[in-house]
Design a protein that fits this description.
The protein is mainly alpha-helical. The chain is built from ten helices and no strands. The radius of gyration is 21 Å and the shape is globular. About 3% of the residues have low confidence. One of its GO terms (molecular function) is GTPase activator activity.
Length: 202
């Protein structure tokens, strides 16, 4: 039985659609496979070694104006992202400051579960104007996420105390909110700004 041109075309389009769907499923599985399991890492160490070493290295270096806002060269940054995905580690001592900063943000962005879950994001928005309640919301995080959240906030707070960086809590909130809020919305950087400001007393 001969097929009409319309039937042949429809079949070709269906095959193309099916092939695309399969490719998308494979890509999604590969992406899920490479996500970072923070709870698993924290069985060995409360704070991932890369994050510890990265912040230690940043604080030991001369202040770079606009830290965390400068994008590194893609040809250097992208291969290192693959190392983070595969080994959860890159030696910060071997990298330029802008590369370290970008990899810190990438690490948090690649967590299987963001530091701030969708449920927590909703609570934080309700308490946006109340620092006391914002801090209370964080207490309900499971231990590994609580420790890592406080560690991040305190390191960002430390950066704001050095005027040579020219990065205040507002600027750092803008840089980090999209990387740690699972359900990021415009305005969430204000929440992070407040949390960075009160981090010293947590």
């Amino acid at each position: 039985m001969n097929k009409t041109k319309q039937e042949v075309l429809a079949e070709m389009l269906q095959n193309k659609s099916n092939k695309y769907a399969v490719q998308q499923q494979i890509a999604k599985r590969q992406q899920q496979k490479s996500l970072i399991d923070l709870d698993k890492i924290c069985i060995i160490t409360p704070i991932p070694i890369f994050i510890q070493n990265a912040f230690t290295e940043l604080h030991s270096r001369p202040a770079q104006v606009g830290i965390f806002r400068i994008s590194p060269a893609e040809q250097i940054y992208r291969p290192l992202c693959s190392e983070i995905d595969e080994n959860y580690y890159v030696d910060p001592k071997q990298q330029e400051t802008d590369v370290i900063c970008a990899l810190i943000k990438y690490f948090y962005r690649r967590l299987q579960n963001q530091l701030f879950s969708t449920e927590l994001c909703k609570k934080l928005r309700v308490h946006m104007d109340n620092p006391v309640l914002l801090k209370a919301d964080l207490v309900n995080l499971r231990p590994s996420y609580f420790e890592n959240t406080i560690y991040l906030l305190q390191n960002l707070s430390k950066i704001t105390t050095n005027s040579e960086y020219k990065m205040d809590s507002r600027n750092l909130g803008i840089c980090f909110a999209p990387n740690i809020f699972e359900d990021y919305q415009f305005g969430d950087e204000k929440i992070l700004k407040t949390l960075i400001e009160v981090a010293g007393v947590m």
